[in-house]
Design a protein that fits this description.
globular, Rossmann fold, 16 helices, 3 domains
Length: 442
Amino acid sequence: MKKVLVLGAGLVSRPHVRYLLDVPDLEVTVASRTLSKAEALVQGHPRGRALALDVNDQATLEELIRQTDLAVSMLPYVYHPQVAALCVKHKKHMVTTSYVKEAMRALDGPAREAGVILLNEIGVDPGIDHMSAMKVIHQVERKGGRIASFISWCGGLPAPEANDNPLGYKFSWSPEGVLLAGRNPARFQRGGVIVEIPGPELFDHYWPVQIPGLGEFEGYPNRDSLPYAETYGIQPTDWMFRGTLRNVGWCATLKKIAEMGWLDDTPWPERPATFREFTARLLGVGPETDLPRYLAEKWDLAPDAKPITDLAWLGLFSDDPLPVGKTSPLTILAARMTSKMSYKPGERDMLIMQHEFIAEYPDHREEIIATMIDYGIPYGDTSMSRTVGLPAAIAVRMILHGEISLTGVHIPVIPEIYEPVLAELAGLGIGLTETTRVLPPA
């Protein structure tokens, strides 16, 4: 019987844990800061165990890792290197769904020496995006072609029938993570030219994106796209771009939210009592100021312009009390958005992914569009939790069953990993549909 330790019991953990508990030869321990959350995932399963864990308790964390065969870190990304180092020390495998950072990359050699794999980026974005892109790229290369342009979009959004608030968004994963991503600088290639976008200008750069069957969305850059050309083994001469999808209007509103200082995560030692007072303090004006009128004049917008009405809908001009225990603008805003923009019982979320390739062959060019539209299950798992948790769970099973025998730090861009994972996901109803058309000569 193999043992799996799942660290964290957050919004995307349930499908992951339930998949693992359905594997007959696995014992699964879920350790979470909040014991009740771990217990809700295990649900009394005979091969499951729920524990309370403070991840900063190094001795307890190390002992749990020593007793397991593989650790899955669903913790905030800052803890992944700590968990990974303990896994290497005790010669245990590790899986995460987060991006590889330098501290993780530095463990590649030690992991190889220990004979273990540290598999990262095996969720949805990153994860399914990598695997589905590599599937197409390798298909093109086997037919003697090359990728001249690569654009990839991904977004977790409310399903159309649940899209009922002005911002067009609801939270299916960490609200603070969503907002922090709005501060990231971006870099990509367009027309063969490298474009760099500073973090404060991120929401100035967005484009309309058409998704078959759903219509138009807004897309904006997602961090640094350029390293993925090397990761994917391609040399595009036109676009090399990875972006985020949102409903129309999101970027204009988030731009103004960022300008006001709401994305600052610095704690305030003393904070006002109400949202109106806090917003006024951020803007450097008195609490008696007519904030919508002030912002309309400051931004040269009509008083009923969407960014202003969105802020009013959120209650940022209201006399509502600030949430208890939140001290930074970002955590206060995240708590407010959570209270106003969460899924109601029975509502579905939606995960959209779309890759757009231009493939060049000796005698012709092709446009290949690969699209996934996945929906959550009413009163069941969200699409976000399934598309993040299930690829990681499949990889855990494969590693422990010896179907993945790699060692070192990896992401799922090689056939040994992505082919069986994509095949199993397809059997679970998760996958991309490809369309191809021949382009006229350039």
